[in-house]
Inverse folding.
């Protein structure tokens, strides 16, 4: 099961294929689960810019857990 601060890779069915990201939030409802994945934007003029991409878990694979992740536990 994928959880907050897990490192994931987008699969070949996603337009961000091959990119790595860190799960910053997991949103659960009665019928579904959505993951918000933060992906650093390469070659960006402003450092620290992150794209946040939502996925239902079908287009991402867990790689491991980030040593440094997103702070706070308010979404857990």
């Amino acid at each position: 099961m994928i959880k907050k601060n897990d490192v994931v890779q987008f699969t070949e069915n996603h337009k961000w294929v091959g990119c790595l990201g860190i799960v910053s939030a997991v949103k659960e409802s009665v019928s579904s689960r959505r993951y918000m994945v933060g992906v650093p934007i390469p070659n960006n003029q402003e450092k620290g810019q992150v794209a946040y991409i939502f996925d239902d878990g079908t287009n991402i694979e867990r790689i491991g857990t980030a040593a440094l992740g997103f702070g706070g536990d308010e979404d857990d």
User: Anything to note?
Assistant: The mean pLDDT is 86. Residues 6-65 form one domain.
